[in-house]
């Protein structure tokens, strides 16, 4: 019954939709490939003899790029109409980072600032 | 559904209707009934506490039973009474206020209410099954890991179930308010109750996950052999305190913000004025919500965080007084010069301002970390949080009950009895808790089951107990009022208060099951008031009469929640007698049936999730003809 009110699409509408979906799929595949590549690079870096001071910031940087790709391409943040969701995710991330930093600082490091 | 809802029905089908309903109005009533029941339970526990403390060296309750009593009083009042009662009003009012036909996820809404009800029942079954939780409503890990028997298991599992329901409801309301407003209702035209509900819903979405994590870690520690909080095995009990208060502080704003919203509506309706400083009110609401997350460690000043951390959290806490002050002054300015009508809701609203300000001022006193070392764990704290929670939230709930009663039940509560309740309750409240500030300053510690004679606490404790009886008398008269009103059943028509400003008052009573025959066009803040003064007193429709889609009722939410309820019993007894278990339960008899019960319960939940996922339920359409018929009937009734 849910289909009761659906109208038939015109040919150009259908074509436009197809076009959009192909484009979307290409985006998904490209970002997926990129993420696999970044993960692969991170593994190689960790496995090779590169010093840790060099590896850690680069792997963290890769992780950051992956998070962005996840949010924008896989979770549709790049699309229109996601403003509120975007705002909430940003706020949530701010809170989460604040909690984690605060807890690590207070619980494990103690109070180093005198 | 559509056809039967207007016909007379038997008791059985009414019960079945409520068990399966996905209609926000009926779910609101379910929340009200269940929340009211738990409110009464928590109230009885409070009376027993006050009776125990009425005289020195009392042995009315034993020390252990007293601990169970205070734990269950706090837990019940916060999780099972205050929040569900607020959800009752949110469910009943918010969709009507924004011009929606239901919430965004009606099925999820039904899940929320059943998870809450079953979680609440589970928690209270502890009274009959070997003792209630006794580690305080905060259940600090060092106490709760040590607590013998199953009490704290009931706490952890019960809260996990109700917490899941609350989280779902929070997501549901945020989505509904963001996506389902009527045409013309921009963010800055939303009524204040909708705004505060939106902010509270967002706070729930951010604040409940830390509680879920904390309670899961507690469940793992107590029932499945992990060591997150067990210091001997390398755990850290302070983590629980942080996780609990990261949730716990926003929680008090989740409670108070919707109450602020209810008061804002009441002030402007019964002063017959537009809410003063609407945009400042919205801004203040958002700011309170944001600051609420940045201050949790002020509950832990005496833990030993160090002077820097204490100073930061002290200053952040004091900052919250600024937006709250903005709100208080705006309410006063709203009443100022208005044509005031002192109905029962308005009386509660007026009494709320000084009561809440008193609670706020003691809050700022405690925010000063060095001074807090003196107040900590004394009756001063007890007085403070009862002033904000009773003087703010409970007054808001009682005001909301009288104010929104016509929308929920199509009758009016008796005003005379309402005012008697008001006088008894407000007088009793101040008598009970004002003196507790002084008891605290004189050195009486909280959470101690008795006190000695000759310490100067006798008279003050007696006064406090007498006050509690006044409050109980007020609640009993309220119950009489409710029963009388339901029995008389004198129906009222549209806009029963006569000065309704927002969309919910423009609807015919009883509200049709689809809420709006045509979605209304909103032309400004206080949409209905605008149409009364500038239009013909009716909302302009934003669409022609058309078929529209409604969801089917479903029993699956109840079965899904029941599965978790059953699984909880399995988890509860799982660690009994196991050699890896904590000392609290390792000496008990092993229960070999615990694991099967756990598996069966989870199985029921997963199977019903599968049924929900793979069996299409496309809902039904309300037809044009039916709506036209309803509208004609309404027209005839009006003439």
TrEMBL record, chain A:
Predominant place of localization: membrane
InterPro entries attached to this UniProt entry: Cyt_c_oxidase_su4_prok
Any GO CC annotation of this UniProt entry: plasma membrane
Transmembrane feature ranges: 29-48, 54-75, 87-111
Keywords annotated in UniProt: Cell membrane, Membrane, Transmembrane, Transmembrane helix
Topology of the protein relative to the lipid bilayer: Multi-pass membrane protein
Protein name per UniProt: Cytochrome c oxidase subunit 4
From TrEMBL, chain B:
Any one biological process term the GO annotation gives: electron transport coupled proton transport
Membrane topology per record: Multi-pass membrane protein
Pathways involved: Energy metabolism; oxidative phosphorylation
Reaction(s) the record says it catalyses: 4 Fe(II)-[cytochrome c] + O2 + 8 H(+)(in) = 4 Fe(III)-[cytochrome c] + 2 H2O + 4 H(+)(out)
Name this protein carries in UniProt: Cytochrome c oxidase subunit 1
Transmembrane segments: 29-49, 69-94, 106-129, 154-180, 192-220, 252-271, 278-299, 311-333, 345-369, 381-404, 416-439, 459-483, 555-573, 593-611
Family the UniProt entry places it in: Belongs to the heme-copper respiratory oxidase family.
UniProt-listed CDD domains: Ubiquinol_Oxidase_I
Lineage, top ranks: Bacteria, Bacillati, Bacillota, Bacilli, Bacillales
Main localization of the protein described in the UniProt heading: membrane
Limits of the Cytochrome oxidase subunit I profile domain: 10-523
Compartments, as annotated in UniProt: Cell membrane
GO cellular component, one term: plasma membrane
Domain of life: Bacteria
């Amino acid at each position: 019954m849910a289909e009761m009110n659906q109208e038939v699409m015109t040919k150009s509408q259908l074509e436009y939709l197809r076009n959009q979906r192909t484009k979307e799929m290409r985006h998904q595949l490209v970002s997926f490939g990129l993420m696999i590549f970044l993960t692969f690079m991170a593994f190689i870096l960790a496995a090779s003899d590169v010093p840790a001071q060099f590896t850690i910031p680069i792997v963290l940087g890769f992780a950051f790029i992956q998070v962005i790709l996840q949010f924008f391409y896989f979770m549709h943040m790049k699309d229109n109409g996601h403003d509120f969701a975007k705002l909430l995710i940003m706020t949530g991330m701010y809170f989460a980072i604040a909690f984690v930093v605060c807890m690590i600082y207070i619980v494990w490091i103690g109070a180093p600032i005198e | 559904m559509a056809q039967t809802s207007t016909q007379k029905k038997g008791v059985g089908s009414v019960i079945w209707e409520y068990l399966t309903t996905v209609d926000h109005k009926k779910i609101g009533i379910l929340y009200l009934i269940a929340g009211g029941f738990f409110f009464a339970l928590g109230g009885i526990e409070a009376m027993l506490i006050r009776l125990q403390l009425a005289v020195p060296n009392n042995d009315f309750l034993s020390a252990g039973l007293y601990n169970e009593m205070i734990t269950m009083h706090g837990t019940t009042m916060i999780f099972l009474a205050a929040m569900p009662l607020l959800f009752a009003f949110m469910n009943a009012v918010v969709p009507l206020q924004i011009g929606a036909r239901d919430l965004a996820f009606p099925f999820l809404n039904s899940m929320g209410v059943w998870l809450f009800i079953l979680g609440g029942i589970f928690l209270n079954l502890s009274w009959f099954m070997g003792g209630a939780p006794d580690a305080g409503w905060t259940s600090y890990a060092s106490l709760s890991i040590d607590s013998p028997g199953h009490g704290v298991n009931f706490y952890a599992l019960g809260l996990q179930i109700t917490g899941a329901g609350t989280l779902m409801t929070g997501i549901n309301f945020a989505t509904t308010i963001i996506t389902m407003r009527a045409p013309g209702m921009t963010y800055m035209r939303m009524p204040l109750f909708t705004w505060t509900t939106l902010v509270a819903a967002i706070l729930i979405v951010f604040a409940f996950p830390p509680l879920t994590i904390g309670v899961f870690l507690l469940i793992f520690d107590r029932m499945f052999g992990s060591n997150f909080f067990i210091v001997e095995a390398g755990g850290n009990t302070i983590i629980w305190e942080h996780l609990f208060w990261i949730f716990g502080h926003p929680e008090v704003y989740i409670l108070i913000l919707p109450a602020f919203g209810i008061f804002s509506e009441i002030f402007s309706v019964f002063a017959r004025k537009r809410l003063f400083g609407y945009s400042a009110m919205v801004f203040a609401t958002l700011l309170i919500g944001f600051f609420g997350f940045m201050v949790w460690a002020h509950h832990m000043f005496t833990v030993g965080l160090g002077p820097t951390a204490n100073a930061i959290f002290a200053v952040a806490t004091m900052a919250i007084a600024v937006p709250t002050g903005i709100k208080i002054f705006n309410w006063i300015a709203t009443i100022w010069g208005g044509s005031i009508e002192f109905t029962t809701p308005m009386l509660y609203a007026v009494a709320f301002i000084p009561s809440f300000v008193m609670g706020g001022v003691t809050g700022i006193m405690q925010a000063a970390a060095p001074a807090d070392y003196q107040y900590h764990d004394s009756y001063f704290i007890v007085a403070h949080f009862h002033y904000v929670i009773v003087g703010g939230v409970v007054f808001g709930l009682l005001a909301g009950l009288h104010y929104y009663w016509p929308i929920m039940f199509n009758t009016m509560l008796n005003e005379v009895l309402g005012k008697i309740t008001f006088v008894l309750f407000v007088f009793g409240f101040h008598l009970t808790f004002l003196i507790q500030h002084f008891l605290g300053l004189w050195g009486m510690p909280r959470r101690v089951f008795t006190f000695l004679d000759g310490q100067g606490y006798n008279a003050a404790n007696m006064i406090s107990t007498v006050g509690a009886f006044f409050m109980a008398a007020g609640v009993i008269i309220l119950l009489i009022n409710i029963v009388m009103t339901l029995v008389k059943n004198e129906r009222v028509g549209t806009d029963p208060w006569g000065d309704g400003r927002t969309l919910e008052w423009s609807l015919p009573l009883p509200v049709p099951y689809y809420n709006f025959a045509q979605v209304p066009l909103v032309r400004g803040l206080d949409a209905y008031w605008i149409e009364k003064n500038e239009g013909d007193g009716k909302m302009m429709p934003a669409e022609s009469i058309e078929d529209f889609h409604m969801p089917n009722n479903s029993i699956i939410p109840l079965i899904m929640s029941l599965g978790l309820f059953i699984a909880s019993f399995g988890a509860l007894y799982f660690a009994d007698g196991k050699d890896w278990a904590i000392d609290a339960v390792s000496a008990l008899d092993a229960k070999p049936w615990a694991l099967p019960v756990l598996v069966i319960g989870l199985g029921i939940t997963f199977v019903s999730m599968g049924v929900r996922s793979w069996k299409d339920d496309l809902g039904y359409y309300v037809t044009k003809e039916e709506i036209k018929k309803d509208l004609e009937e309404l027209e005839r009734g009006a003439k």
